[in-house]
Here is the input.
Amino acid sequence: MSEKSVDKATLKMIKKAGDDNVKLAWDRLVAQQPQCGFGQLGVCCRNCNMGPCRIDPFGDGPDTGVCGADADTIVARNLLRAIAAGAAAHSDHGRGIAATLYASARGEARDYPIKDEAKLKAVATEFGIVVEGRSVQEIALELAGAVLEEFGTKKGSLQFINRAPVQRRELWDKLGITPRGIDREVVESMHRTHMGVDNDYTSLILQGLRTALSDGWGGSCIATELSDILFGTPQPVKGVCNLGVLMEDQVNIILHGHEPTLSDIIVFAARDEELLAEARQRGASGINVCGMCCTGNEVLMRHGVPLAGNFLQQELAIVTGAVEAVIVDVQCIMPSLPQIAGCYHTKVISTSPKAKFPGALHVPFDEHNAMEVAKKILRLAVENYSNRRREKVSIPSDRMEYMAGFSVEALLAALGGTLSPLIDALKSGSVKGIAGVVGCNNPKYRQDYSHLTFIRELIKNDILVVATGCAAIACAKDGMLLPGAADEAGEGLKAVCKGLNVPPVLHMGSCVDISRILTVAAAIANALGVDIADLPLVGAAPEWMSEKAVSIGAYVIGSGIFTILGTVPPVLGSKNVAALLTSGADEVIGAKFAVEEDPVAAAELAVKHIAGKRVSLGL
Ligand code: BF8
Ligand code: SF4
Here is the structure.
């Protein structure tokens, strides 16, 4: 890899980190070389204390662990555990939002009034809850209760799966992978992967799909829909992004993590006159709240809050020397942050009882008393402005404007109230297909390069892109979320984007908001009377690294969408598991994975797949 990133701000701050003698993820990756070959192939197991065991991939050494598990079993078990962890992360986030809705409805969380009553009623109706003649509080209370039950085992299947076309649901039933309770699937996955339980790789992978579906159509969908109810459904919004959003003369705060419960309230708390006066007293001209990673996506989607960057920029924000506080909750927060902060004046403030960081200051966040805690945290940041060391400050000038906020509702509004114009464009071929491009950065790959190269190839070929997570942030930083980016698109897509004044890449939110993509895919399939697997769609995670991404990939193919992974998953130690995922799955579930590290070749796969689906649909 000649350069670590295509992002100029990132490269400048990597250089500054070197000058400041600060070690970053890229340095730690070098220190890890050579990475464990057994781990890369997925053939090591430490699920019991007869192990750890590993299978010799060359066939010269042991071909089973002490218990007799072979490479197929070990690889499939490891994959299932990764899916379970990813599904757990998304779904526990969803549970947190459901608990906040419950507290709000009971009048115990006064700082969280319901912002979108229309959506509350729509989602409640989906759950069969009577809305006529009832107060918002009553409806919210019943909905929160019903949603919390989705986590248990009582009902037999999840409510939101009913959005999927009947053909898909029948297939899930036939395969025995209709998700039951969200927690139940995660627990069952942990049970099955205990020593001596499920040893059949096909059976393990099917449970992986079921667990992942409980994420996509369960936990993630809950997180999205209930966040919209509580914090407002995103509408098209403009903002700026990249490290250049940090201000030399303001108290800079980075919100990093995932749950909007914390970030949303901080955005409002930062407008407090007393805090602003205190900031001015200390010589700052204001308080600049910026987002990072998915919580950044949450607050940019709803409030247009500036976005400082994606996954590989979290350390670099501190390296600017201009950040008073990094406020974190859960997920994708590098444990290195407090150590890096130690080289500057930055305070890392953890807030979730689930996520503590040695070296960070812990201020427990409490949704029952949210505004008060938010102000307390912000005060720490404001006070810290006085400790800023001017000689260490260097903020890169790079910043870019973007347009985001494409919730399903916003998309419908942009289309004039129905999906028909989009469906007509798909039928006529002016839009050939739709690609969901999602996921992380990974220091093994040049930051943002795969996202941007892949996406540019797609839009050139008239494929509309919907993006979430760190992939969407990569697009934002490179100007791909501006309507003008349509100039890079093929003639058909360009005309559609210009007509609607939208970018060729629609930012649909954080990673849990991939549920929005599922909802749109299901609605298009239902409108055409076909299965999702029949549609000209692809999914892709060009630079993925997290277990959440593994769950996402599994529920996307489980939902019938061909998915291209740009980084290699640890499954190659089992030919059978790799073959099932990249070929056999097509016959079983109507979709499969491809692994392609070269984004141009990956785009060719996507274009070919979409062309094939168009022919089958008679388009
Ligand atoms: O949930 S894309 S690095 S921030 S896992 Fe994490 Fe990956 Fe970013 Fe959000 Ni998603
Ligand atoms: Fe080894 Fe089997 Fe125990 Fe895994 S479960 S560590 S393969 S003995």
Summary: The CA atoms of residues 37 and 43 lie 9 Å apart.
